[in-house]
Amino acid sequence: MAGSPRHNGNTDILVERALKGAHESGADVVLVRLRDLSIDHCQGCNCCFDAGECRIDDDMTHLYQLLDEADVIILATPVYFSGLSSIMKQMIDRCQCLWARKEVLGARIGSLGRTGALISVGGQNPPEFKNSISVVKSYFNSIDVDYRAELLVPAVDEKGDIMNNPTFLAKAYDMGVSLVSEIR
Ligand SMILES: Cc1cc2nc3c(=O)[nH]c(=O)nc-3n(C[C@H](O)[C@H](O)[C@H](O)COP(=O)(O)O)c2cc1C
Fold this sequence. Notes:
By secondary structure, the chain is an alpha/beta fold. 41% of the residues lie in helices and 12% in strands. The chain has helices at 10-24, 48-51, 60-69, 86-93, 96-103, 130-142, 166-182, and strands at residues 72-78, 115-121, 146-153.
């Protein structure tokens, strides 16, 4: 899931490499670009505590289904003010209904043993990655995903800077390969 508002930026490039690795290892992959979706913010109404469903009807409805079906989830985001991009955080907050399904209603989310990873890029050297890691670990825990890998890339600021860094491009590809190999 790509969480940068910048089309073809560093986040897009890295997540596409990871999905290429996953696809070439035999996985069915779906690339979700959050900037292309219409996702409202969580209203904090707690309506989802009754049945684990969000009452807002927008593009999250389809995304909930994808999240439920996925064996591996990769979240990719630029560092924005030492944290996740707002569109990534907005998506995460809308998964409060999945948290409610698990923690209030006692259901499992998705298949057993599913895993996830974080890809993040920042312009500074080094950027502050720890806040994003903390949020993503908390999120994955809430949707029954084991935080398995991370690729944290400093000092890429301009659009496409990452293309000058073949080492990290290869690491992204390898991440996709190894996440798929673990589920077989
Ligand atoms: C609103 C905003 C806030 C940012 N905050 C940070 C920051 O706190 N730390 C950092 O290292 N880079 C920060 N950056 C730089 C981006 O992380 C960097 O340009 C990154 O490569 C963008 O990824 P993209 O090409 O996928 O959009 C910020 C950029 C923007 C637009």
